[in-house]
Protein backbone atom coordinates (compact mmCIF):
# COMPACT_ATOMS: atom_id res chain seq x y z
CA UNK A 1 0.00 0.00 0.00
CA UNK A 2 1.32 3.44 -0.95
CA UNK A 3 2.13 5.83 1.89
CA UNK A 4 -0.34 8.63 2.28
CA UNK A 5 0.89 12.02 3.54
CA UNK A 6 -0.59 11.40 6.98
CA UNK A 7 1.20 8.03 7.18
CA UNK A 8 4.54 9.55 6.21
CA UNK A 9 3.98 12.12 8.94
CA UNK A 10 3.17 9.41 11.47
CA UNK A 11 6.37 7.59 10.53
CA UNK A 12 8.55 10.62 11.22
CA UNK A 13 9.96 9.60 14.53
CA UNK A 14 12.44 11.72 16.43
CA UNK A 15 14.10 11.03 19.72
CA UNK A 16 15.02 13.71 22.21
CA UNK A 17 18.45 14.06 23.70
CA UNK A 18 17.60 11.68 26.58
CA UNK A 19 15.47 9.31 24.56
CA UNK A 20 12.42 11.53 24.85
CA UNK A 21 9.51 10.78 22.52
CA UNK A 22 9.63 14.36 21.30
CA UNK A 23 12.77 15.87 19.83
CA UNK A 24 14.75 18.16 22.09
CA UNK A 25 14.23 21.86 21.55
CA UNK A 26 17.33 23.70 20.40
CA UNK A 27 17.76 26.48 22.91
CA UNK A 28 20.60 28.28 21.16
CA UNK A 29 20.97 31.09 18.69
CA UNK A 30 24.49 30.13 17.75
CA UNK A 31 26.50 26.92 17.45
CA UNK A 32 30.11 26.01 18.11
CA UNK A 33 32.52 24.42 15.65
CA UNK A 34 35.39 22.16 16.57
CA UNK A 35 37.44 23.52 13.73
CA UNK A 36 37.59 26.93 12.10
CA UNK A 37 37.62 25.31 8.68
CA UNK A 38 34.22 23.65 9.24
CA UNK A 39 32.81 27.05 10.17
CA UNK A 40 34.15 28.54 6.95
CA UNK A 41 32.75 25.63 4.90
CA UNK A 42 29.36 25.97 6.55
CA UNK A 43 29.23 29.61 5.51
CA UNK A 44 30.17 28.79 1.94
CA UNK A 45 27.99 25.74 1.37
CA UNK A 46 25.54 23.93 3.60
CA UNK A 47 27.55 21.37 5.52
CA UNK A 48 25.32 18.43 6.34
CA UNK A 49 24.43 18.28 10.03
CA UNK A 50 26.18 21.54 10.88
CA UNK A 51 24.38 24.47 12.41
CA UNK A 52 25.73 27.96 12.26
CA UNK A 53 23.23 30.46 13.52
CA UNK A 54 19.53 30.01 14.19
CA UNK A 55 18.33 32.56 11.63
CA UNK A 56 19.86 30.26 9.05
CA UNK A 57 18.63 26.99 10.53
CA UNK A 58 18.13 25.24 13.83
CA UNK A 59 17.39 21.61 14.70
CA UNK A 60 13.83 22.38 15.84
CA UNK A 61 13.03 24.28 12.66
CA UNK A 62 14.52 21.53 10.54
CA UNK A 63 12.34 18.90 12.28
CA UNK A 64 9.23 20.93 11.61
CA UNK A 65 10.36 21.57 8.04
CA UNK A 66 10.85 17.85 7.51
CA UNK A 67 7.34 17.12 8.76
CA UNK A 68 5.88 19.75 6.43
CA UNK A 69 7.82 18.39 3.47
CA UNK A 70 6.33 14.98 4.30
CA UNK A 71 2.87 16.57 4.48
CA UNK A 72 3.19 18.13 1.03
CA UNK A 73 5.34 15.44 -0.57
CA UNK A 74 8.15 17.84 -1.50
CA UNK A 75 11.89 17.35 -1.19
CA UNK A 76 12.31 20.02 1.43
CA UNK A 77 10.62 22.81 3.38
CA UNK A 78 11.68 25.96 5.25
CA UNK A 79 9.66 27.34 8.13
CA UNK A 80 9.12 31.04 8.79
CA UNK A 81 7.88 33.31 11.54
CA UNK A 82 4.56 33.84 9.71
CA UNK A 83 2.66 32.95 6.58
CA UNK A 84 3.45 36.39 5.20
CA UNK A 85 7.12 35.80 6.01
CA UNK A 86 6.96 32.71 3.80
CA UNK A 87 4.99 34.39 1.01
CA UNK A 88 7.14 37.51 0.80
CA UNK A 89 10.36 35.45 0.84
CA UNK A 90 9.17 33.33 -2.09
CA UNK A 91 8.07 36.34 -4.12
CA UNK A 92 11.26 38.31 -3.54
CA UNK A 93 13.36 35.23 -4.25
CA UNK A 94 11.67 34.63 -7.60
CA UNK A 95 11.23 38.20 -8.79
CA UNK A 96 13.74 40.92 -9.57
CA UNK A 97 12.95 44.59 -10.08
CA UNK A 98 10.78 45.07 -13.16
CA UNK A 99 9.41 41.51 -13.15
CA UNK A 100 5.78 40.49 -13.33
CA UNK A 101 3.46 38.11 -11.46
CA UNK A 102 0.22 36.54 -12.59
CA UNK A 103 -1.93 36.02 -9.51
CA UNK A 104 -5.42 34.96 -8.67
CA UNK A 105 -7.57 37.94 -7.82
CA UNK A 106 -9.16 36.15 -4.88
CA UNK A 107 -6.28 35.83 -2.47
CA UNK A 108 -5.55 36.62 1.15
CA UNK A 109 -5.74 40.37 1.83
CA UNK A 110 -2.16 40.62 3.06
CA UNK A 111 -0.78 38.86 -0.02
CA UNK A 112 -2.89 41.10 -2.22
CA UNK A 113 -1.64 44.25 -0.47
CA UNK A 114 1.96 43.08 -0.72
CA UNK A 115 1.70 42.43 -4.45
CA UNK A 116 -0.38 45.45 -5.28
CA UNK A 117 1.20 48.11 -3.02
CA UNK A 118 4.49 47.02 -1.54
CA UNK A 119 6.02 45.56 -4.69
CA UNK A 120 5.72 49.00 -6.32
CA UNK A 121 9.00 49.75 -4.55
CA UNK A 122 10.66 47.25 -6.87
CA UNK A 123 8.54 48.03 -9.90
CA UNK A 124 7.23 44.47 -9.77
CA UNK A 125 3.75 44.40 -11.28
CA UNK A 126 1.00 41.87 -10.69
CA UNK A 127 -1.89 41.02 -12.99
CA UNK A 128 -4.80 39.86 -10.84
CA UNK A 129 -6.90 37.49 -12.90
CA UNK A 130 -9.66 34.95 -12.54
CA UNK A 131 -7.46 31.86 -12.25
CA UNK A 132 -10.41 29.53 -12.78
CA UNK A 133 -10.06 30.62 -16.42
CA UNK A 134 -6.85 29.07 -17.76
CA UNK A 135 -7.27 31.28 -20.85
CA UNK A 136 -7.26 34.43 -18.71
CA UNK A 137 -4.11 33.25 -16.93
CA UNK A 138 -2.32 32.51 -20.19
CA UNK A 139 -3.34 35.84 -21.66
CA UNK A 140 -1.83 37.69 -18.70
CA UNK A 141 1.61 36.05 -19.04
CA UNK A 142 4.28 38.40 -20.41
CA UNK A 143 7.98 38.02 -21.12
CA UNK A 144 8.62 39.48 -17.64
CA UNK A 145 6.40 37.01 -15.78
CA UNK A 146 8.27 35.05 -13.12
CA UNK A 147 5.52 33.10 -11.36
CA UNK A 148 1.90 32.06 -11.32
CA UNK A 149 0.34 32.42 -7.89
CA UNK A 150 -2.92 31.13 -6.46
CA UNK A 151 -4.56 29.67 -3.37
CA UNK A 152 -5.74 26.05 -3.58
CA UNK A 153 -9.00 27.08 -1.96
CA UNK A 154 -9.16 30.83 -1.93
CA UNK A 155 -9.75 33.25 0.85
CA UNK A 156 -12.52 34.21 1.44
CA UNK A 157 -14.67 33.09 -1.47
CA UNK A 158 -13.59 29.45 -1.47
CA UNK A 159 -12.78 29.53 -5.14
CA UNK A 160 -11.10 26.24 -6.04
CA UNK A 161 -7.99 26.34 -8.24
CA UNK A 162 -7.62 23.68 -10.90
CA UNK A 163 -4.03 23.01 -9.91
CA UNK A 164 -3.41 20.35 -12.55
CA UNK A 165 -4.47 22.68 -15.35
CA UNK A 166 -2.55 25.63 -13.92
CA UNK A 167 0.57 23.46 -13.47
CA UNK A 168 0.34 22.34 -17.08
CA UNK A 169 0.15 25.93 -18.24
CA UNK A 170 3.00 26.95 -15.94
CA UNK A 171 5.20 24.14 -17.33
CA UNK A 172 4.38 25.20 -20.88
CA UNK A 173 5.69 28.69 -20.11
CA UNK A 174 8.51 27.44 -17.92
CA UNK A 175 7.16 29.28 -14.87
CA UNK A 176 6.87 28.08 -11.30
CA UNK A 177 3.35 27.55 -9.98
CA UNK A 178 3.16 28.79 -6.39
CA UNK A 179 0.16 27.59 -4.37
CA UNK A 180 -0.93 28.83 -0.95
CA UNK A 181 -2.55 25.73 0.57
CA UNK A 182 -3.45 27.24 3.95
CA UNK A 183 -7.18 26.42 3.65
CA UNK A 184 -6.73 22.80 2.62
CA UNK A 185 -3.84 20.93 4.25
CA UNK A 186 -4.09 17.15 3.62
CA UNK A 187 -7.30 17.75 1.66
CA UNK A 188 -5.39 18.99 -1.37
CA UNK A 189 -1.83 17.97 -2.23
CA UNK A 190 -0.70 20.64 -4.72
CA UNK A 191 2.76 19.13 -5.34
CA UNK A 192 1.17 15.86 -6.43
CA UNK A 193 -0.97 17.85 -8.86
CA UNK A 194 2.09 19.56 -10.36
CA UNK A 195 2.62 22.71 -8.29
CA UNK A 196 6.26 23.69 -7.73
CA UNK A 197 6.15 25.66 -4.50
CA UNK A 198 3.58 25.23 -1.73
CA UNK A 199 3.09 27.78 1.03
CA UNK A 200 1.12 27.55 4.26
CA UNK A 201 0.27 29.92 7.00
CA UNK A 202 0.87 27.44 9.82
CA UNK A 203 -1.09 29.85 12.02
CA UNK A 204 -4.32 28.24 10.83
CA UNK A 205 -5.24 24.54 10.56
CA UNK A 206 -1.75 23.08 10.77
CA UNK A 207 -1.03 24.47 14.22
CA UNK A 208 -4.71 24.56 15.07
CA UNK A 209 -4.50 26.17 18.50
CA UNK A 210 -4.52 29.88 17.52
CA UNK A 211 -1.59 30.58 19.82
CA UNK A 212 1.08 31.71 17.36
CA UNK A 213 1.82 32.83 13.82
CA UNK A 214 4.12 30.81 11.57
CA UNK A 215 4.58 29.84 7.94
CA UNK A 216 6.27 27.39 5.61
CA UNK A 217 7.58 27.11 2.07
CA UNK A 218 7.67 23.58 0.61
CA UNK A 219 9.60 22.92 -2.57
CA UNK A 220 12.69 21.38 -4.10
CA UNK A 221 15.85 21.05 -2.02
CA UNK A 222 17.52 23.55 -4.37
CA UNK A 223 14.84 26.19 -3.97
CA UNK A 224 14.70 25.80 -0.20
CA UNK A 225 18.48 26.09 0.00
CA UNK A 226 18.45 29.17 -2.22
CA UNK A 227 16.06 30.84 0.25
CA UNK A 228 18.60 30.16 3.01
CA UNK A 229 21.64 31.34 1.10
CA UNK A 230 23.68 33.67 3.32
CA UNK A 231 24.45 35.96 0.38
CA UNK A 232 21.21 36.02 -1.57
CA UNK A 233 18.45 34.10 0.23
CA UNK A 234 15.29 36.10 0.91
CA UNK A 235 14.42 33.85 3.85
CA UNK A 236 17.83 34.32 5.41
CA UNK A 237 18.17 38.04 4.69
CA UNK A 238 14.64 39.24 5.45
CA UNK A 239 14.95 37.57 8.82
CA UNK A 240 11.48 36.13 9.29
CA UNK A 241 12.81 33.34 11.50
CA UNK A 242 10.56 31.05 13.50
CA UNK A 243 11.55 30.56 17.13
CA UNK A 244 12.59 27.01 18.10
CA UNK A 245 10.13 26.80 20.98
CA UNK A 246 7.28 27.56 18.60
CA UNK A 247 8.56 25.17 15.98
CA UNK A 248 8.52 22.41 18.58
CA UNK A 249 4.97 23.18 19.70
CA UNK A 250 3.68 23.36 16.12
CA UNK A 251 5.25 19.97 15.36
CA UNK A 252 3.41 18.45 18.32
CA UNK A 253 0.11 19.96 17.21
CA UNK A 254 0.65 18.65 13.69
CA UNK A 255 0.40 15.13 15.05
CA UNK A 256 -3.38 15.44 15.22
CA UNK A 257 -3.91 17.35 11.98
CA UNK A 258 -5.47 14.40 10.13
CA UNK A 259 -8.08 13.86 12.85
CA UNK A 260 -8.88 17.54 13.13
CA UNK A 261 -9.27 18.06 9.38
CA UNK A 262 -11.83 15.24 9.18
CA UNK A 263 -13.87 16.73 12.03
CA UNK A 264 -13.69 20.32 10.69
CA UNK A 265 -14.87 19.06 7.30
CA UNK A 266 -17.65 16.85 8.60
CA UNK A 267 -19.01 19.67 10.76
CA UNK A 268 -18.78 22.26 7.99
CA UNK A 269 -20.46 19.94 5.47
CA UNK A 270 -23.32 19.25 7.90
CA UNK A 271 -23.94 22.96 8.48
CA UNK A 272 -23.62 23.84 4.79
CA UNK A 273 -26.26 21.28 3.84
CA UNK A 274 -28.61 22.41 6.60
CA UNK A 275 -28.23 26.11 5.76
CA UNK A 276 -28.87 25.35 2.12
CA UNK A 277 -32.04 23.42 2.96
CA UNK A 278 -33.13 26.44 4.98
CA UNK A 279 -32.86 28.57 1.83
CA UNK A 280 -29.80 30.55 2.95
CA UNK A 281 -27.09 31.65 0.52
CA UNK A 282 -24.28 29.38 1.54
CA UNK A 283 -21.05 28.72 -0.27
CA UNK A 284 -19.20 25.46 0.40
CA UNK A 285 -17.11 23.42 -2.05
CA UNK A 286 -18.90 20.26 -0.93
CA UNK A 287 -22.24 21.50 -2.26
CA UNK A 288 -22.98 20.56 -5.84
CA UNK A 289 -23.97 24.15 -6.73
CA UNK A 290 -20.56 25.50 -5.71
CA UNK A 291 -18.62 26.65 -8.82
CA UNK A 292 -15.53 24.76 -7.66
CA UNK A 293 -17.33 21.56 -6.66
CA UNK A 294 -16.25 19.44 -9.61
CA UNK A 295 -12.62 20.53 -9.56
CA UNK A 296 -12.49 20.02 -5.80
CA UNK A 297 -14.03 16.55 -6.06
CA UNK A 298 -11.56 15.63 -8.78
CA UNK A 299 -8.41 16.74 -6.97
CA UNK A 300 -9.14 16.26 -3.25
CA UNK A 301 -8.17 13.48 -0.89
CA UNK A 302 -11.66 12.33 -0.09
CA UNK A 303 -10.99 11.05 3.41
CA UNK A 304 -10.52 14.64 4.61
CA UNK A 305 -13.73 16.04 3.18
CA UNK A 306 -14.32 19.44 1.61
CA UNK A 307 -12.68 21.52 4.31
CA UNK A 308 -13.67 23.52 7.35
CA UNK A 309 -14.53 26.86 5.74
CA UNK A 310 -17.88 28.06 4.52
CA UNK A 311 -19.41 31.43 3.81
CA UNK A 312 -22.92 32.62 4.41
CA UNK A 313 -24.45 35.69 2.84
CA UNK A 314 -26.95 37.23 5.22
CA UNK A 315 -27.83 40.18 3.00
CA UNK A 316 -26.35 43.18 4.78
CA UNK A 317 -23.47 44.21 6.98
CA UNK A 318 -25.94 44.99 9.80
CA UNK A 319 -27.32 41.46 9.64
CA UNK A 320 -23.84 40.02 9.55
CA UNK A 321 -22.67 42.06 12.53
CA UNK A 322 -25.74 41.34 14.69
CA UNK A 323 -25.60 37.64 13.88
CA UNK A 324 -21.91 37.38 14.72
CA UNK A 325 -22.39 39.22 18.03
CA UNK A 326 -25.34 37.02 18.94
CA UNK A 327 -23.55 33.80 18.02
CA UNK A 328 -20.63 34.83 20.18
CA UNK A 329 -22.95 35.59 23.09
CA UNK A 330 -24.48 32.11 22.65
CA UNK A 331 -20.96 30.63 22.89
CA UNK A 332 -21.06 29.23 19.35
CA UNK A 333 -17.68 30.71 18.55
CA UNK A 334 -15.67 33.88 18.40
CA UNK A 335 -16.04 37.00 16.30
CA UNK A 336 -12.45 36.82 15.18
CA UNK A 337 -10.37 36.58 12.05
CA UNK A 338 -8.19 33.55 11.35
CA UNK A 339 -9.21 29.92 11.01
CA UNK A 340 -8.51 26.36 12.00
CA UNK A 341 -9.27 26.73 15.72
CA UNK A 342 -11.18 24.16 17.85
CA UNK A 343 -13.90 26.76 18.23
CA UNK A 344 -15.80 28.22 15.30
CA UNK A 345 -14.43 31.60 14.19
CA UNK A 346 -16.45 34.08 12.16
CA UNK A 347 -15.79 37.42 10.56
CA UNK A 348 -17.14 39.60 7.77
CA UNK A 349 -14.26 39.54 5.25
CA UNK A 350 -15.30 42.76 3.50
CA UNK A 351 -14.56 44.78 6.63
CA UNK A 352 -11.75 42.64 8.04
CA UNK A 353 -9.40 40.19 6.34
CA UNK A 354 -10.11 41.47 2.83
CA UNK A 355 -10.48 45.14 3.67
CA UNK A 356 -7.20 45.78 1.84
CA UNK A 357 -9.12 45.10 -1.36
CA UNK A 358 -10.93 48.25 -2.62
CA UNK A 359 -14.74 48.08 -2.37
CA UNK A 360 -15.18 48.15 -6.13
CA UNK A 361 -12.85 45.21 -6.64
CA UNK A 362 -14.54 43.37 -3.78
CA UNK A 363 -17.86 43.71 -5.61
CA UNK A 364 -16.34 42.56 -8.86
CA UNK A 365 -15.06 39.36 -7.28
CA UNK A 366 -18.36 38.66 -5.56
CA UNK A 367 -17.37 39.71 -2.09
CA UNK A 368 -20.51 41.31 -0.70
CA UNK A 369 -20.99 43.18 2.57
CA UNK A 370 -23.33 40.65 4.11
CA UNK A 371 -20.85 37.82 3.70
CA UNK A 372 -19.72 35.99 6.83
CA UNK A 373 -16.78 33.64 6.67
CA UNK A 374 -16.97 30.71 9.08
CA UNK A 375 -14.12 28.49 10.10
CA UNK A 376 -16.13 25.68 11.60
CA UNK A 377 -14.78 24.26 14.84
CA UNK A 378 -14.39 20.77 16.21
CA UNK A 379 -17.84 20.80 17.90
CA UNK A 380 -18.72 17.40 19.28
CA UNK A 381 -22.47 17.69 18.59
CA UNK A 382 -22.84 19.72 15.43
CA UNK A 383 -26.62 19.13 15.39
CA UNK A 384 -26.84 21.12 18.63
CA UNK A 385 -24.65 23.87 17.16
CA UNK A 386 -26.95 24.04 14.15
CA UNK A 387 -30.07 24.38 16.31
CA UNK A 388 -28.58 27.26 18.28
CA UNK A 389 -27.31 28.98 15.13
CA UNK A 390 -30.71 28.68 13.58
CA UNK A 391 -32.38 30.18 16.64
CA UNK A 392 -29.97 33.13 16.38
CA UNK A 393 -30.92 33.64 12.75
CA UNK A 394 -34.62 33.49 13.49
CA UNK A 395 -34.29 35.91 16.37
CA UNK A 396 -32.70 38.39 13.92
CA UNK A 397 -35.25 37.60 11.16
CA UNK A 398 -32.52 36.36 8.86
CA UNK A 399 -34.52 33.14 8.78
CA UNK A 400 -38.32 33.19 9.00
CA UNK A 401 -39.78 31.77 12.22
CA UNK A 402 -41.67 29.04 10.38
CA UNK A 403 -38.58 26.96 9.77
CA UNK A 404 -38.37 26.50 13.53
CA UNK A 405 -40.65 23.46 13.43
CA UNK A 406 -38.43 21.03 11.55
C1 LIG B 1 -3.60 33.86 7.29
C2 LIG B 1 -3.23 33.63 5.87
C3 LIG B 1 -2.01 34.08 5.36
C4 LIG B 1 -1.03 34.88 6.19
O1 LIG B 1 -0.47 34.12 7.20
P1 LIG B 1 0.10 34.75 8.57
O2 LIG B 1 0.53 33.55 9.33
O3 LIG B 1 -1.01 35.51 9.21
O4 LIG B 1 1.23 35.66 8.20
C5 LIG B 1 -1.72 33.79 4.04
N1 LIG B 1 -2.57 33.11 3.25
C6 LIG B 1 -3.76 32.68 3.70
C7 LIG B 1 -4.66 31.95 2.79
C8 LIG B 1 -4.14 32.93 5.02
O5 LIG B 1 -5.33 32.50 5.46
TrEMBL record:
Matches recorded under InterPro entries: Cys/Met-Metab_PyrdxlP-dep_enz, PyrdxlP-dep_Trfase, PyrdxlP-dep_Trfase_major, PyrdxlP-dep_Trfase_small
Pfam families associated with the record:
Cys_Met_Meta_PP
Q: Which GO terms describe its molecular function?
A: carbon-sulfur lyase activity; pyridoxal phosphate binding
**Which GO CC terms are listed, alphabetically?**
cytoplasm
Instruction: Tell me which UniProt keywords the record has, alphabetically.
Output: Lyase, Pyridoxal phosphate
| One GO BP | transsulfuration
Residue list for modification N6-(pyridoxal phosphate)lysine: 204
Q: What protein family does this chain belong to? A: Belongs to the trans-sulfuration enzymes family.
Provide the protein name.
Methionine-gamma-lyase
Amino acid sequence: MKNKAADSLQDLQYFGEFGGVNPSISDSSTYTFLSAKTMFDTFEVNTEGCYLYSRHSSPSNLYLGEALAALEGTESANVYASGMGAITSVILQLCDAGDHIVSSRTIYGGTYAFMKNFLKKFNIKTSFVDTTSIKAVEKAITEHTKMIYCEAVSNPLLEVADIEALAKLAKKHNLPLVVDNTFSPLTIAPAKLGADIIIHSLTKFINGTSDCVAGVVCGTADFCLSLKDVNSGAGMLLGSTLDSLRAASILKNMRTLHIRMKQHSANAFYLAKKFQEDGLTVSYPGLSNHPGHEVMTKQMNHEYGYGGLLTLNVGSLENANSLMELMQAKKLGYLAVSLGFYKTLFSAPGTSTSSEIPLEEQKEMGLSEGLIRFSIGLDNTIERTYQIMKECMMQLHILPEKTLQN
